[in-house]
Specification:
It is a single chain. It contains three helices and seven strands. It is an alpha+beta fold. The chain has a four-stranded antiparallel sheet. A three-stranded antiparallel sheet has the order 1-2-5.
Length: 158
C-alpha cells in the first residue's frame, strides 16, 4: 500500500489544492518575468531630451556671463515650434567637484508662447557660496515637478 492510499480524502484534497495553488503561482511568476515591463520609465539622456526638444522648441545663442561679485547671467533665444500656454526655465549651478551651489526652479518664464515666434530671454542668479563652473538649463511646459519632465535640457560651461 502506497502513501497516497493511506491518506484520508480530506488530506488528498488538501494536497491536490496545494499543488494546484503552487503551480498557479509558478505560472504567474514565470509569466511576469517573461513579459516586457511597460511601466518602467527611462531617465532621459541629453541626446533624447534634445531630440524631443527639437520637435517642440529651438534654443539658440545661449551664453553664460559672469557679471562679477557672484552674479551670473544666462541669455539666449527660444523659438517654440508649436504653441505653448506656458514655458519656464530652471537653472542648477555646480562647482568643479559637482556640488550643487544654487538651484533656481523659476529662473525665467513666459505665458502664451506662439509657434515660430522667437523669444529672447535673460536671467541672472547670485551665487553666494563657491564658484560655479557649469550650469544645467532645463525648460518645462508647466510648473516643474521633476527634472524628467523637461522638454529641453543642456549643460553649459561658465
Amino acid at each position: 500500500m502506497s502513501w497516497w492510499d493511506e491518506q484520508s480524502s480530506a488530506t488528498r484534497a488538501g494536497v491536490i489544492i496545494g499543488a494546484l495553488c503552487l503551480g498557479f503561482i509558478l505560472v504567474v511568476a514565470i509569466g511576469g518575468m517573461m513579459s516586457p515591463d511597460n511601466t518602467a520609465t527611462e531617465a532621459p539622456s541629453a541626446e533624447k531630451s534634445n531630440t524631443q526638444a527639437q520637435s517642440e522648441i529651438r534654443v539658440e545663442d545661449i551664453e553664460v556671463v559672469s557679471e562679477g561679485y557672484g552674479s551670473y547671467s544666462v541669455k539666449g533665444k527660444i523659438t517654440p515650434l508649436k504653441d505653448f500656454s506656458y514655458l519656464e526655465m530652471h537653472l542648477k549651478w555646480y562647482d568643479s567637484e559637482g556640488n550643487l551651489l544654487y538651484d533656481n526652479p523659476l529662473a525665467w518664464n513666459i505665458n502664451d508662447a506662439k509657434s515660430g515666434q522667437p523669444v529672447k530671454f535673460s536671467t541672472i542668479d547670485f551665487i553666494d557660496s563657491g564658484t560655479p563652473v557649469k550650469v544645467e538649463l532645463l525648460i518645462f511646459t508647466d510648473l516643474a515637478a521633476d527634472d524628467d519632465s523637461a522638454i529641453y535640457r543642456t549643460t553649459l560651461n561658465v
